[in-house]
Amino acid sequence: MSRHYTCLIRTHHITSRKKLHRVRHLAKQQALSSLLVRYGGPPGIMYAESDQLSPLEQWVSSVQALRYKDFNLAIKPAEMAREGHAVPGMGFWETETTEGFRAEMKRRGLEEWWKKGMGYNSR
Q1: In the chain, where are the structural domains located?
Q2: CA separation for the pair 109, 42 (Å, rounded)
Q3: Strands 91-95 and 72-79
Q4: Fewer Cβ atoms within 10 Å of its own Cβ: the N or the C terminal residue of the chain?
Q5: Which backbone phi and psi does 46 adopt, to 5 degrees?
Q6: Topology classification of domain 5-118
Q7: Strand duo 72-79 + 5-11: pairing
Q8: Residue 85, Cβ neighbours under 10 Å: how many?
Q9: Which residues make beta-bridge pairs with 94?
Q10: What is the pTM of this model?
């Protein structure tokens, strides 16, 4: 079984296409296996995963340097086990709705983890 590291970032919003392009470029530079972004109005959400911890931590630092409003590292980079028969994600994925983001987290077997990080679940 290979290692799998994830993190979750919340911001006030993600609306700048230029910054989003930079976030994607940084993810590609660090060879992250997956990046999900909730784009548009509040809240801004970013989920990233990697098979190594260090590149994920470097990506988080680089994204934080972009100075997103109300940047919050909701769940720090750490090793993660998937729930049930989850499907790993690959590449870049973007949605304009929180519900779409939640659905993708569920598909990946990370819905409860995501809810906790977003403050929707007290577990």
Answers
A1: 5-118
A2: 24
A3: unpaired
A4: N
A5: -130, 130
A6: Alpha-Beta Plaits (3.30.70)
A7: antiparallel
A8: 6
A9: 37
A10: 0.90
